[in-house]
Amino acid sequence: REELRRRQLEQLNRLLADAGFDGFIRSRWPQLLSDRRQQLQFAVPSRLDSYGFHVQRVGPAVYREQAAQTFRLGLDGWLGLVAPDIEVTYSSNGNRLLRFKGLSNIRGDDGRATLRALIEFPLTDREVPAADKNRAQTVLLKSCQLS
To answer: Strands 15-16, 97-107: parallel, antiparallel or unpaired by DSSP?
Structure first.
């Protein structure tokens, strides 16, 4: 059994984790559209630490024939020189994440290497029939193809 490890992280007013990045983008939308670089601390629970990141608008984009904006998230400091950036594309009004491209929190078959992901989200929400939802929940993740 693994020993429980804890650590209090600093800069809680700028600290984000996982899906909190989406809220960060939405809350800073006007500043990001003005091309001002935004600073944040991203929590990495597995390392009991947080890392400095910056996010800045790359520019306008078109995603599936829809007006959009693309942003780049990168590590600060010397780690930023070797770590790949993450790129996200949002609808032009900033209310919907359309595309994620970059390093993920999904591990490869060896259990150690993190995989790069390209995730494209639908343009609209739709209701999924209960039978389809139940069937999807029985499929093992192992059956997904990683490339």
So the answer is: unpaired
Distance from C-alpha of 25 to C-alpha of 28, rounded to nearest angstrom: 5
CA dist 71 and 88 (Å) reads 5
Torsion angle in degrees (nearest 10) through CA of 114, 139, 122, 63:
40
Helix (H) or strand (E) holding 133: helix 130-138
Distance separating alpha carbons of residues 108 and 112, to the nearest angstrom? 6
Contact 84/74 with Cβ under 8 angstroms? no
> In 3D, which of 99, 90, 98, 75 has the Cα closest to residue 33?
90
Encode pLDDT of 19-35 as tens digits: 778 888 998 899 999 98
pLDDT tens, position by position, 104-114: 877 777 877 77
SS3 70: strand
